[in-house]
């Protein structure tokens, strides 16, 4: 015996009464056409208030309109309700399944959502806790980025070249173009990326960062694009969203893009071309809207020429290039940075330590291979070593002292061999002095054999 459509309505209503879950059905315009009593009770609404209203009037951050318009489904997601939209203030998040409904011709006729009020198994409870913790983590990371001091207004620097670069970055922050930030390690590429995001039209959306050099090659695809439950051994129950999905409508920062494996570069290119990601193990792609900022310390142009970086990806990322100046070319900014780092330490530890004029000269004369990051570490180290209220030269790392002495010495002979020998002599003398002329300890510190150190002492006529 076949059941008529009107009988299915009674059966469906009875199921909605029996279930412990909440159900809601919307039409193709997002208007609520049915909702069970359990869900109404959770929301603190009556059926009369809900049915016939837009779901956005009842659940202001609902994704059901998007589900219907873009025709997709999602299962086991966490939904956190906006303040005041649930009957109990402390009970404001649920595990939810959502899906669009199509007819035999593939036309969308409705959207349906199921929410879990009672967690039936320990696995479900653990999933909820795990997923909510992950949600809170990304929320905290997002708030941290939004609240930190990195913005164009507070960037340190009066160097003309730096000012020009900053103006260029401010100009392109207002666009949606992909940006490639290049420069040496420690020059502040991530600071520029954060400032660009904070001054863009996406500033109120998340900025998600990933360091391509820090992720193992076999994990980078799952980190970027996510995976479905059971897609590989060790996959987390319920799957995991990727960084692109988490950055949707915001910005993704791909740090050290030059270290991305070559096979992953083609997958990244497809995502940038199609504006959609496909999780590992998934059968359907997810549409995304993400602004891409990439950064690298490497010369991508050379990598393209030698075949280690895809040319098409390079041009896709390098729509706008911002090359950050190394600190050695910003001599007029070195003291500004040093004062800033020292003020932060004095404020944190309630001290009044300052820097001597001799130290300032050393800082300016040093070549700073580690750039701003190295300068910050040097100031911290000198602050910790300082025994009075003024940081002196002997509080600095020995390599800086030796380099400064070497650079300040006038010599008519500028041949490379002569200069290298002079610098080596200074390093050995400084190391012997630190170690009270102990050959064994000094050789170990310099990373050479004791017999070789004796030969160099004899070569340079060093007297103990």
* Number of structural units classed as domains: 4
Instruction: State the secondary-structure class.
Output: alpha/beta
Strand order of the largest sheet: 2-1-5-4-3
CATH superfamily of the largest domain: P-loop containing nucleotide triphosphate hydrolases
**What is the share of helical residues?**
40-55%
What is the CATH architecture descriptor of the largest domain?
Answer: 3-Layer(aba) Sandwich
Low-pLDDT parts are: none
Mean of residue pLDDT values? 85
CATH class of the largest domain: Alpha Beta
* DSSP, total strands: 16
Distance between the termini: 109 Å
Work out the radius of gyration.
31 Å
Main sheet record: 5 strands, antiparallel
Outline, from the CA principal axes?
Answer: elongated
Remind me, CATH topology of the largest domain?
Rossmann fold
Number of helices: 20
Query: Could you tell me the strand content as a percent range?
Result: 15-25%
Can you summarize this structure?
With 464 residues, the protein is of the alpha/beta class. The chain is 46% helix and 16% strand.
């Amino acid at each position: 015996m076949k059941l008529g459509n009107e009988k299915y309505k009674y059966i469906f209503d009875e199921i909605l009464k029996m279930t412990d879950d909440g159900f809601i059905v919307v039409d193709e315009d997002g208007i609520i056409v049915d909702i069970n009593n359990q869900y109404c009770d959770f929301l603190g609404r009556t059926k009369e208030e809900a049915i016939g209203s837009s779901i956005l009037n009842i659940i202001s951050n609902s994704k059901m309109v998007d589900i219907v318009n873009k025709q997709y489904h999602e299962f086991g997601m966490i939904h956190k309700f906006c303040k005041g939209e649930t009957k109990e203030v402390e009970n404001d998040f649920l595990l939810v399944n959502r899906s669009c409904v199509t007819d035999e011709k593939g036309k969308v006729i409705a959207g349906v959502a199921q929410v879990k009020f009672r967690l039936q198994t320990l696995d479900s409870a653990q999933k909820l806790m795990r997923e909510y913790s992950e949600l809170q983590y990304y929320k905290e990371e997002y708030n941290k980025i939004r609240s930190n001091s990195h913005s164009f207004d507070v960037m340190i620097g009066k160097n003309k070249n730096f000012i020009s670069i900053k103006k260029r970055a401010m100009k392109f922050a207002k666009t949606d173009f992909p940006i490639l930030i290049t420069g040496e390690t420690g020059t502040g590429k991530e600071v520029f990326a954060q400032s660009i995001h904070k001054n863009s039209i996406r500033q109120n959306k998340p900025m998600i960062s990933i360091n391509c050099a820090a992720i193992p090659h076999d994990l980078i695809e799952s980190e970027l694009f996510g995976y479905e439950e059971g897609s590989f051994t060790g996959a987390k129950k319920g799957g995991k969203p990727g960084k692109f999905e988490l950055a949707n409508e915001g910005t993704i920062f791909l740090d050290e893009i030059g270290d991305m494996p070559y096979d992953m570069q083609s997958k990244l290119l497809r995502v940038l071309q199609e504006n959609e990601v496909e999780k590992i193990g998934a059968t359907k792609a997810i549409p995304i809207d993400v602004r891409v900022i990439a950064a690298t310390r490497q010369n991508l142009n050379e990598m393209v020429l030698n075949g280690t970086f895809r040319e098409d990806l390079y041009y896709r990322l390098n729509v706008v290039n911002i090359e950050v100046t190394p600190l050695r070319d910003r001599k007029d900014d070195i003291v500004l940075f040093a004062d800033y780092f020292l003020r932060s330490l004095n404020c944190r530890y309630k001290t009044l330590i300052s820097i001597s004029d001799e130290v300032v000269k050393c800082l300016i004369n040093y070549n700073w291979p580690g750039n701003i990051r190295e300068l910050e570490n040097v100031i911290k180290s000198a602050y910790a070593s300082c025994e009075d209220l003024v940081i002196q030269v002997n509080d600095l790392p020995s390599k800086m002292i030796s380099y400064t002495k070497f650079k300040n010495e006038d010599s008519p002979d500028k041949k490379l061999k002569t200069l290298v020998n002079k610098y080596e002599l200074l390093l050995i003398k400084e190391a012997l002095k630190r170690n009270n002329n102990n050959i064994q300890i000094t050789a170990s510190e310099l990373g050479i054999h004791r017999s070789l150190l004796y030969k160099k002492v004899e070569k340079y006529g060093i007297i103990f």
